Amino acid sequence: MTETHHSTDQRTRTAVVTGASSGIGAATARALAAAGFHVLCAARRTDRIEALAEEIGGRAVACDVTDDASVAALAAAVAEAGDGALHVLVNNAGGAFGSDTVDEADVEDWRAMYDVNVLGLLRVTQALLPALRASGDGLILNVGSTAGRVSYEKGGGYTAAKHATKAVTQTLRLELNGEPIRVSEVAPGMVHTEEFALVRFGGDQAAADAVYDGVPDPLSADDVADAIAWVATRPAHVNIDELVIKPRAQAAQHKVHRIR
Ligand code: 8X3
Question: Which of 34, 119, 135, 246 could bridge to 250 as Cys pair (CB 3.0-4.6 Å)?
Answer without folding.
Answer: 246
